[in-house]
What does this fold into?
Amino acid sequence: MFGVSSTDTAPRNTPESSTGPLLVVGLGNPGPKYAATRHNVGFMVVDELAERATPMPATFSVHKRSNAEIAQIRIGGRTVILAKPRSFMNLSGGPVKALASYFGVEPADIVIVHDELDLEPGVVRLKFGGGENGHNGLKSTSTSLGTREYIRVRMGIGRPPGRMDPADYVLRPIPQSACADLAIQCADAADGVELIARSGLAIAQNTIHSR
It folds into this structure.
């Protein structure tokens, strides 16, 4: 259902010096039923980024043209649009494409934050391009954008125990015992996004992957 990519290396065509707006989309499912599940770690990271905004935390509001909740912040002088699609995971691409079109953001300046079964819990990895490895949110995003050439922030959640269906695993509430470690992981991912905005993907990778 999900998988790991072949490389985390930033290719030469990654816009390391881009100064245009950065669109950061957390993947997840809408509604309180899914809020505390592993499939919604993307939402958790963009919430973390909104909380960090200065001089005061940013507030999300509905962007009707894209069917997403968005908040606009500044990181290192760069405009960053934070987004949480209001569609379900397998339809994430529609809101991503609509937001990119509305704000004039090129695919290479889109950051998708998502859960990753083939990384251990707590691990954060940043990459540009590559396959979707069965992740329905990434599949929808690539199809809607017409390209796989966008940045991914991969949030490790580990494989389900025993013979548990991966779909059941990602949609079950995260146990209380894992919440402290998850908060650290979300902070690391948010650090990665901030570094991408300020300094580009290569520097962000070097910093986050060494932790």
Remarks:
- Strands lie at 22-26, 61-63, 68-75, 78-85, 110-116, 124-128, 151-156.
- The first strand starts at residue 22 and ends at 26.
- Residues 161 and 169 are 8 Å apart (CA to CA).
- Helices lie at 41-52, 93-103, 136-145, 166-170, 179-199, 201-208.
